[in-house]
Amino acid sequence: MKLQDWHTHNSMCHHAIGSLEDYVKKGIELDLDLLGISDHFPYDYLIGMDGVPIEDYGMNLHEIESYISTIENLKEKYGKKIDLKIGFEIDYIGNQVERLNTHLNKIKSHLDFILGSIHILFLENGPWAMDDNRFLEKYNSLGANRVFLLYYQTMQKMLNSTEFDFDIVSHFDLPKKFNKFPNKNSKDLITIEISKTLDLIKKRDLTVEINTGGFRKDVKEQYPSEEILKEMCELDIPILLGSDAHDPNELAYEFKKILKLLKKIGYNKLASFSQRKRSFIEII
Ligand SMILES: [Zn+2]
Ligand SMILES: [Zn+2]
Fold first, then answer.
1. Ligand 2 centre from 170 Cα, in Å?
2. Which residues hold their Cβ within 5 A of ligand 1, which is an ion?
3. CA-based, 20 to 30 A from 217: which of 7, 125, 131, 242?
4. What CATH number did the domain enclosing 258 receive?
5. pLDDT digit string (tens) for 74-87?
6. Which residues span the domain enclosing 12?
7. 203 CA distance to ligand 2 centroid (A)?
């Protein structure tokens, strides 16, 4: 089957390589059906982010328009060879969704899809970029039990926030990135939190991304885990694939392998988005 990749970055975010056009060309070379461009939404509208190097994480607000117009131009140039969709990966920052929306609303009509993500957790002494390995010491001092718990509690807030408007939940079990996991005593508690989170996803009728970026990290597997995928399949939660490419060579990373796993689990279709409307394609 022709593949669709819904989670890709580019050099505009300051921590990925390759221009937007480089990704499009690579997508054509790989014979992808569709490329979902989903660079990080700017972080520079946020306040109180001391200790979080937001300048390394995304484009600036004033670059949004050129991001969109560049993709629109690429659509004109390459549209016959590959379907391009315009999106953003947006961080949920609980108390600043209203600020986000003042910027997002201006350009929302151009978007085909929005990924909702959590990379930043709020601790008593301020924000912490949980998946940035420069702050791994913090992870170690908190311990995986607390990190996983806080992460899922934050995700539940994201799912309960009617103001935070998005379509797809990214890298569902991201705290495992460094191959750290809750211990036996906490595992049951986390399992309950995961089920509560999936119920909220189901209730809101959202889609979950199968993110193959995890294969390139210490954990060496996709997000979410096979165990979680089985639970999602029972709940009939829609899914799609994302490579989280930060290099054109990472496009559609390990997608073939994942499709086999998905079929084994019982999934037979993948979601697809256009102008924020979901449709489905069959896994063949
Ligand atoms: Zn990134
Ligand atoms: Zn992400």
1. 6
2. 9
3. 125
4. 3.20.20.140
5. 999 999 999 999 99
6. 4-282
7. 23
